[in-house]
Each structure stands twice: as C-alpha cells, then as structure tokens.
Amino acid sequence: MSISELQMGLIGAGGVVVVGIFALNKWQERKQRKAAEALANVGLQEPVVGEPAAPGADRLEPVIAGEAPPRPAPSEQELRDASARRVPLLPPEVDERADWVVRIESIESVVAGQFCHAAAQHLDGIGKPLRWFGFSDTDNRWEPLNPHGASRYHWLCAALQLVDRRGAASEGELAQLAAGLQRVCDAFMAIPLLPARAEAVARGAALDQFCAGVDIQIGVNVLARDRALPGAKLSGLLQTAGLELLGDGSFHARDDKGATEFVFSNLEPVLFTAEGMRSMTTQGVTLILDVPRVADGVRAFERMMKLAQHVADALGGVVVDDNRSPLGDKAAGMIRSQIEQFQGQMAEHGIPAGSPLALRLFA
C-alpha cells in the first residue's frame, strides 16, 4: 500500500512533537535535579544521578532568557529532607583502618534513646568496643548518640573497633554484629549499609599484628635495702612530685594535657590508698611506662628515672630493672633507643604514640 504525501507529512510532524516533548521533559528533569542538589549542605556526598526533587518543591517552569526570578532560601525542613536522602560522610571520630563502620538510614527519624534501648537488647555480648553516632540534620554533623536522649535522626552510625589488646575481631563477631543490627533496623524500618566483613577481618588481623610488634612497657623498680620503705614518707614524696593517687591503687604522673605518662605502684600485692599509706611499709615499688600510650616516650622515661632515683635516695633504696639488676647508664641508654625505635615505627604507620587512635588500640 502506497503512502500519500499528506500521510508522510503527518508522520513527520508527529515525530517532531514527540522529540520536542521528550526534550522538554529532560530539560525540566535536569532543572529539578539541580534544585534538589542545591539543598544539600557542605559535608554531604553528591546525590545520585536521577534523584527526584525534594517533596513539596515548587515546580520548575521554563525561564525566558534575561529573566532571573529570585530563588528563595531553602527552609530548615527542606534542608533536613535533603540531607536525610543523602549518605553523610563518616564521623571524624572513627577511623576505617581500625573500625568496621555501619551507617544506618531511616526514612522516618528515630529517637536516640529508643534506638539505643533496642540495640542493647539485640547486641548483647559484642566483645569489642562499639560506639554510636547520630547525624544532626540541623547542625549538619555527626554527634555521639545519647542512650537516654530524645534527639531524632534519619542517619545513625555504628563503629565497631576491630583491634584492642585482647586481639583482633573475628568473622564470627562481625557476623553477630551484622545480624543484631539487622534485627534492630527491622524494628525501626531502617536500612543498615553493611560493609564487606572479610575485608574488615583481614584489615583487623594486619593491624593487630603491627600493634603486637610495638606493644611494650618499660618497668623500673625501687627495692628496699636495709629496711622497708615507709608508706607515709613515700606518699609525701610522690605528692610533692606532682603525682596523683587514683582509684586503681596507683599514683599517676601526668603530662601537660593531663594524660598519664607513667604509674607508680606497690610491688607487693597491696594497693595504695590514702588511709593505708599512713601506716604501711613495703619492700619495693614499681614504675611502669606504657610506650604506645605516651606521646613523648623518651621525655617520660627521663622523668620516671629521675623520680625513681629520687625515691631511692630519700628512702634508702636501690633502682633495679625487672631482673632486679642495678639499672645503670648503659641499660638506661638502651631503653631510650628502644622507645625511640618503637614510637618511630608507630609514627611511620600513621598511628603516633599517645594519639587518640593509639589510646583506643592499646587499651
């Protein structure tokens, strides 16, 4: 059957209309997407291509060249809606080298206290430190989750520490956490974004191996010679030197920022107490420097040695090492070299001694 010129013209005109409608739809869709992207605050990841505009947003109409209609500033509700649809960056307190991080998205905001209560029921028995954060849409930042708080969040974050002094997290521990998180999220109609477990387990094992290689403590003892060391005089010497007796039964020497540099403890199996030291005596005391947890290990060691010698001279004792051999200048020099070596390795690995990450890993 032949096609007349009229029919051909109608077909051609129809094709032009279809193409025009398609182009107009694409143009409007692109304008709407850009408007939605403008609602995102700094610190959020870029939106997914094709993401719909925010609910309630004004419809975008074609703008004649030369006309620039004023764009109203996004409302607080629009900002919250926009940030709720995008994946926030990780909280600055977490470190993916040492943490298995699970972000949780909830379409309807959840109350912090209610979520923490449910998490405590489903995540009982997790063996590694687990920290929680909630993303504030108003402040555009992560904040630690208050287990008794009434704040509401569209995004939450669980960070499981992969390594501590007990070793690395196992595949079973991560599987237990993943299953528990899924149950909690099901109760709140939320979605957990679970990273790969096998990669996290391998990363944790490698980090644990490194930590084990630099995890050293330096011990120095002061032993009594002719008579036992009197507790009252000992307490006075330590307080004058600026040490503080804490609830763990040891005196703590602190740095300028208040962090513990070394501890001074009883060598006998009796804890120091403020009341007990008035009448007690001991055959020896020990000073311990935890190398990975001290920012300037050499300086802390010098301070520790100076205090040990001061106590020995004042109370008639002698400074010895762990083998109860006199600790001379040569042995002290070797210890300084070891401290420099191990703390140098930590710095090269990106985990400086005494840093917040080091304090978590060596706890």
How would you sum up this structure, described in words?
With about 375 residues, the protein is α+β, with helices and mostly antiparallel strands. Helices cover about 40% and strands about 20% of the residues. The protein contains 9 helices and 15 strands. A 6-stranded antiparallel β-sheet has the order 10-11-12-14-8-15, covered by helices on one side. α3 (about 110-120) packs across α4. It is elongated, with a radius of gyration of 32 Å.
The biggest sheet, with number of strands, parallel, antiparallel or mixed sense and barrel status, is: 6 strands, antiparallel
Distance between the termini: 87 Å
Percent helix range: 25-40%
Query: Which series of helices and strands comes N to C?
Result: HHEHEEEEEHEHEEHEEEEEHEHH
The spatial strand order of the largest sheet comes to 10-11-12-14-8-15
Q: β content, as a range?
A: 15-25%
List low-pLDDT spans.
6-24, 34-68
What structural class do helix, strand and pairing data support?
Answer: alpha+beta
What would the principal axes of the Cα set say about the shape? elongated
Q: Using only CA atoms, what is the Rg?
A: 32 Å
What average pLDDT do the residues reach? 84
Total DSSP E strands: 15
Give the helix tally. 9
